[in-house]
Amino acid sequence: MKAICDDLEAETAALRAVVANLTEEQWRLATPAAGWDTHETVVHLGQADWAASLAVLDQTGFGDLKTAMSSGGSDLARAAEADIDSMSGAEVWAWFENERARMIAAFRELGAKDRIPWFGPDMSALSFATARLMETWSHGADVADTFGSPWPDTDRLRHVAHIGVTTRGWSYVNRGLPVPEGNVRVELTSPSGEVWAWGPEDAESTVTGPALDFCLLATQRRHRSEVNLVGTGALADEWLDIAQAFAGPATDTRGPS
Fold first, then answer.
1. 2-152, what's its fold?
2. For residues 122 and 128, what is the distance between their CA atoms, to the nearest angstrom?
3. What are 8-35's pLDDT values in tens digits?
């Protein structure tokens, strides 16, 4: 838990560096994610962090929130008591950083296998923190793309890649498709040059390439035609067309930038 929390703090710092000197006009510029500007992106991250803290620190309160949201009686914006529309970009960032720090502090008190309730299935603390990192990295990539800013290509990507691999079955289920039988071997070259691998070595289908490219594809931040990934075998080829590492309705990877 210490390691994933440290990495989550590092991803937060990377996003801070991108937004630090934005003007109010820039905060409202559209990102490559359709329908989102930077202001809305950071608000979204902060609301999820607020709910995550509630799920850890007050599970009864979180259960009440989940019930209210399922019946349409509340939403995260109202529940988090954040007057989002009136906040400047700098104010949104300060609010987000406070929520992020509170969430990470709550995570640090947990064991890796402790269970945390969520809007979908419960998750282990380690999986939950990893998912928050994945979302921070992928939404942060949208903001960085908006301004042509550098975005970290570090070995912290292993967390994102792991979710990308383990959600292969979800990518099918989420589209109402049967999950095919058979395994896919994934071998990704990390930013530091190490090879990260998942799946049996004798699998007939394989995915190989840079970890960064796989993460951008699995989080649907790049079109398949824009990444240097090789899918060998029918299972790998099919998966790379529909890979989706995040929860929510099935979406189509954005077109080539």
1. Four Helix Bundle (Hemerythrin (Met), subunit A) (1.20.120)
2. 9
3. 999 999 999 999 999 999 999 999 998 8
Cα-Cα-Cα-Cα torsion 220, 223, 229, 233, nearest 10 degrees, comes to 90
Indicate the CATH number for domain 158-242.
Answer: 3.30.1050
Q: Name residue 144's amino acid.
A: A
β-pair partners for 139: none
Domains 2-152 and 158-242 share a fold: no
Q: Where are the domains of the chain?
A: 2-152, 158-242
Residue burial 33-65, b: 16+ Cβ < 10 Å; e: rest: beebbbbbbbbbbbbbbbbbbbbbeeeeebeeb
Name the 3-class secondary structure at 63.
helix
Quick check: pTM over 0.85?
A: yes
